[in-house]
Write a structure and sequence with these properties.
- With about 350 residues, the chain is mainly alpha-helical.
- It has one domain: Orthogonal Bundle (ABC transporter involved in vitamin B12 uptake, BtuC), CATH 1.10.3470.
- It is built from 15 helices and four strands.
- The protein has a two-stranded antiparallel sheet with strand order 1-2. Strands 3-4 form a two-stranded antiparallel sheet.
Length: about 350
């Protein structure tokens, strides 16, 4: 029972990442009809926004510390970050410690800018082109972005630790009546799951309860009619591309402490996220979220040693097997809409 519960928790944090990336993918496809294979790169850029903020906060100067001597008796040169010099040692160290959450403030405008620039500069020229053309050009863009990150940050993963307050683990065993230390789970993974729920709820609330969101939903259903009403739906869809990019970027920022950012992490999540979108139903936002969590949990259970001893390698293919079964029984996915990609 304890192993099952632990795998369920593991599935939730995997599913959170899948759901957030798939949500952004579905926003772009549902509004613009574009199959964006560069969306995984946006997840990667978000993670490296956290890396950049961390590096900037650690920029400092060196000065001799008379209290620390080398073996020759000379004062050692000690590096002091500028934030510690400006705000004091305790406050400055706290700011550095919370660099990952603070990166959210920087990531949102950066990702919106990147998303809008991507849509205005490239994507809009492929609206009326076949989906195959869209896949090729966005996949090429993803490779370019990946190589740019590799050039500036290197090929090795870069650690982005969570705040010290979240370094420990929560003991679910005591909470559920098991023995202590039977079910312990890292605090940051729980934080990521809660963060994902907040972002998902915020996106759905924005689309459901704001005038902007209502117009966007109307445009998704009938773009031409909304345009005839004198509404500049193209501008709103461009902003939605920026919003989708911000969602992917935020997913990447907060996932950094779980998986050290590296230049190919976007590609690692991209294919799985597209499978999630297809399983959930092309163009269905609730379907993308549901499929993200469902497939994340199934993949987690498939990675158990007891399962792999019976079916070796099942954890690597379980998502694709589930996708095949669902699409054979429900060709539109779990919550797909009629007419989407059926031409």
């Amino acid at each position: 029972m304890d192993a099952i519960f632990l795998q369920f928790l593991n599935g939730l944090d995997k599913g959170s990442a899948y759901a957030l990336i798939a949500l952004g993918l579905t926003l772009i496809f549902g509004t613009l009809g574009v199959v964006n294979f560069a969306h995984g790169a946006l997840f990667m850029i978000g993670a490296f926004c956290a890396v950049t903020v961390q590096k900037l906060l650690n920029v400092g100067f060196e000065k001799a510390d008379p209290e620390k001597l080398d073996f020759l008796g000379k004062p050692l040169m000690v590096k002091t970050p500028y934030v510690e010099a400006w705000f004091g040692p305790e406050t400055g160290q706290a700011i550095i410690d919370w660099s990952v959450p603070l990166a959210i403030i920087v990531t949102i405008p950066v990702m919106i800018f990147v998303g809008v620039a991507m849509e205005r500069g490239l994507i809009r020229h492929f609206y009326k082109r076949p989906h195959a053309d869209q896949i090729l050009v966005t996949f090429g863009l993803a490779i370019v972005l990946q190589e740019i990150v590799k050039y500036y940050f290197g090929a090795n993963p870069i650690q982005t630790p969570p705040p010290e307050a979240f370094l420990g683990s929560f003991d679910f065993g005591v909470l559920l009546g098991f023995d202590p230390n039977v079910i312990i789970y890292p605090y940051w993974r729980l934080v990521y799951f809660i963060f994902a729920l907040i972002i998902i709820a915020a996106v759905f609330s924005f689309l459901q309860f704001t005038t902007f969101g209502m117009v966007v939903r109307a445009g998704m259903a009938d773009r031409e009619t909304v345009g005839l009403l004198g509404i500049d739906i193209d501008k709103r869809f461009t902003l939605m591309f920026g919003l989708a990019a911000a969602v992917a970027g935020l997913a990447g920022v907060m996932y950094g402490p779980i998986l050290a950012p590296n230049y190919h992490m976007g590609m690692d999540f991209l294919v799985l996220s597209f499978v999630v979108v297809v399983v959930g139903g092309m163009g269905s936002l609730p379907g993308a979220v549901l499929a993200g969590f469902l497939l994340g949990i199934l993949q987690s259970f498939a990675s158990m040693n007891e399962v792999k001893s019976i079916l070796p390698g099942i954890d690597q293919i379980i998502i694709y097997l589930i996708a095949i079964v669902i699409l054979l029984t429900r060709p539109r996915g779990l919550m797909g809409r009629k007419g989407v990609m059926e031409e």
